[in-house]
Design goal:
This protein has 355 residues and is an alpha/beta fold. The chain is built from 13 helices and eight strands. The longest helix is centred in the first third of the chain and has 26 residues. The structure holds thiamine diphosphate and magnesium ion.
């Protein structure tokens, strides 16, 4: 039977800085901007310090469950730095790097994870969405936000971040499909940290890349080294520009690695050993950018010490403010859910009284 190929595709991977910090030219112009590189570096150092403090607070009973982004700091840092203030971020539960980068305060983040809903009422990026804990459920919301921008002829883009596991869900495929059909100003960014709790990427999907899932929806998909903040900023920035100027959506798969537990409720030693995890420490984003900057003569021991000290001071002061914030009454958990509470919840609220 005569046959002919009717569709061909390939998936590109972008990396500008090798795991050892070596430059892989040609680099984007901003890679020579020492001030910008220092800002990205300090942002990642801050997120790492913040994560460590949040885990310590949880361990001592002063914070709820927390999902550290250890090893994945470049994904959100690079993405947020490429966004414009008027764009809208729709984050998952592991996206503190992106949220802090957008201007959500460390105090707001701590309040949220401490169970205080005021933590989602950001003073900064008012139209950014709150954290989505239900996996992938915010991707259709992101398509909706992008559709609103398109209908209103606003030059704004929705950026949605989610995990490798989320790409197995119907919500993802449905949003992807509509993004293609409606050519939405939407950037979908996968933080492929290789794990969905205990499920490794190898058993998550038989697809060779997660990026290629975009092809079926008629939109471009690509991979980026998610441990290379320069590459993330560049590729997300290009996708945002394209979406902003009517070029439609992009799916970007950022390849990184979850160096820590899934959350504070998890003990990853039960399903993966040190021999599996430790090689990935050689690829992590902070040391990589530091090596790169040192090689360019753009970093020094003094700057390193200042970055670490400034992060520690800022994290400590956010923690103190958080611990000094009076607890909300338990009944406040019912506020802001419905304009009018359904009867079941109304009676639960009455039962709690002012507690
Ligand atoms: C709809 C839904 N199902 C199950 C869960 C429980 N859960 C929380 S995180 C997670 C795995 C998510 O993996 P991935 O999308 O790769 O994100 P990661 O945690 O690695 O950042 C699961 C199953 C949930 N939060 N929401
Ligand atoms: Mg994952």
């Amino acid at each position: 039977m005569p046959t002919e190929p009717v569709a061909r595709f390939q998936i590109e991977l972008t990396r500008f800085v090798a795991a050892d910090g070596a430059a892989l030219p040609p680099l984007p112009d901003f890679a020579t901007d020492e001030k910008l590189l220092a800002t990205l570096y300090r942002a990642m150092v801050f997120v790492r310090a913040f994560d460590a403090k949040a885990v310590a607070l949880q361990r001592t009973g002063r914070l709820g469950t927390y999902a550290s982004s250890l090893g994945q700091e470049a994904v959100g840092t690079g993405a947020a730095s490429a966004m414009r203030p008027e764009d809208v971020l729709l984050p998952s539960f592991r996206d503190q790097a992106a949220m802090l980068g957008r201007g959500v305060t460390p105090l707001e983040m701590l309040l949220y994870w401490g169970g205080d809903e005021r933590g989602s009422d950001f003073a900064g990026p008012r139209q950014d969405f709150p954290i989505s804990v239900p996996v992938a459920s915010h991707i259709p919301h992101a398509a909706g936000v992008a559709l609103a921008f398109k209908l209103r002829h606003e030059k704004r883009v929705a950026l949605c971040i989610f995990g490798d596991g989320a790409t197995s869900k119907g919500d993802f495929y449905e949003a992807l499909n509509m993004a293609g059909v409606w050519q939405l100003p939407l950037v979908m960014l996968i933080n492929n940290n290789q794990w969905a709790i205990s499920v490794p990427r190898s058993t998550q999907s038989a697809a060779q890349t997660l990026a290629q899932k975009a092809i079926a929806a008629g939109i471009p998909g690509e991979q980026v080294d998610g441990n290379d903040v320069i590459a993330v900023r560049d590729r997300v920035g290009k996708a945002l520009d394209k979406a902003r100027t009517g070029g439609g959506p992009t799916l970007i798969e950022a390849l990184t690695y979850r160096l820590g537990d899934h959350t504070t409720s998890d003990d990853a030693r039960r399903y993966r050993d040190d021999a599996t995890v430790s090689p990935h420490w050689h690829e992590e984003p902070i040391a990589r950018l530091r090596q790169f900057m040192l090689a360019q003569g753009a970093w020094s021991r003094e700057r390193e010490e200042a970055a670490l000290a400034d992060a520690a001071t800022a994290v400590d002061s956010a923690m103190e403010e958080y611990l000094a914030t009076p607890k909300r009454p338990a009944a406040s958990m019912f506020d802001h859910l419905f304009a009018t509470l359904p009867p079941g919840q109304a009676s639960q609220r009455t039962e709690l009284g002012d507690a």
